[in-house]
Each structure stands twice: as structure tokens, then as C-alpha cells.
Amino acid sequence: MQTIHTFGKQDPNKSYIKRPAVYAVVFNETMKNAAVVQTDGGKCFLLGGGLEGEETHIECLKREAIEELGLEIEIKQYIGYAERYFFSTKEYTDYLSQGYFYRCELGKKICEPLEEDHHLIWMEIEEVQKKLFHEHQSWAVKTALELSRQNDK
After folding, report:
1. Chain centroid to CA 142: how far?
2. What order of strands is seen across the sheet that includes strand 71-88?
3. Cα separation, 134 vs 94, whole angstroms
4. Are the beta carbons of 97 and 49 closer than 8 angstroms?
5. What pTM was estimated for this model as a whole?
């Protein structure tokens, strides 16, 4: 049974909407930089997002890669599951983000991004850890690095 890593604090007096989502952790060849999606508002996230309908994790990641970056994506390895309690100031809603994380590689460009306010940036790992908006996404980057180092041994 896998360990559930939980971030944020659950307020027992609030109801949370569960939001299952799938995210990609992408490193450059030297493993010193990670791909981050930055919004026009300056917030940084991992590539990915909420599952729609009955789609699989792979279908979700492929759809999100096209929507956010206009790129193909290749899924390499499952990293793990983590969740985060948070309040969305954009939607004024309390959420429990249920994140499934995968190590991925970006592929070729197939179209212009559909979400014009999302931009791919490459950031040093230390900076990624500080700038990602969601703590469970920072956990996934750290865990993916540890798994990659173990696989290299």
C-alpha cells in the first residue's frame, strides 16, 4: 500500500471538493532544470490538471500537454500520489487536490497552446521547489529526483 503524503491543513468545519488531477515532472537532460508552466499572473505549476470524465491518467496528461503547451508527451514512470488541502481564491472554493504524478518527457510541437496564458519555462530545481504554487507538486519534483538517482545506481 502506498503512503499518502498530505499537504495543507484540513479544517474539520469545511467541506472540500475532491479534485483528482494528473501532473508531469519533466527534467532536462542534465537533471538540473525542470519544466514549469507559468501563468500570466506569475504562478508556477507542473504541467497537468484535472481528470475529465472517464479519461485515464495517460489521456489526461496528453490532453493537458496539448492544451497548455501544444506538445506531445511521453510518460516514463509513476512517481506517486500526494494531496493538498487549499482554498482557491480564483473560484472561492475549498479543494482537496488529489495529485497523481508521473515522470515524463516532452515531445514535438503539434500545435499552438490552447491556453494562451500558460507558458513553458525551464527552472533550476532549487528554484522550482520554492516557486511551485502547490506543495504536493514540490514534493513530486523532489521524489522524482530521488527515484532517478536510485535508477542510475
Report:
1. 12
2. 5-7, 71-88, 93-109, 17-25, 47-50
3. 14
4. no
5. 0.92
> Residue 12 has which C-alpha cell?
474539520
Cell 506517486 -> residue? 80
Cα–Cα distances (Å) from 69 to 5, 12, 64, in that order, read 28, 38, 8
pLDDT in tens, 118-128: 999 999 999 99
CA distance 46 to 141: 9
pLDDT tens track for 55-95: 999 999 999 999 999 999 999 999 999 999 999 988 999 99
Rounded distance, CA 54 to CA 91, Å? 23
Residue 104: which of 73, 72, 64 has the closest Cα? 73
Give strand ranges (E) for 26-139: 33-39, 44-45, 47-50, 71-88, 93-109, 118-124
Structurally, at CATH architecture level, domain 5-152 sits in: Alpha-Beta Complex (3.90)
Beta bridge partners of 49: 22
Parallel, antiparallel or unpaired: strands 17-25 and 93-109: parallel
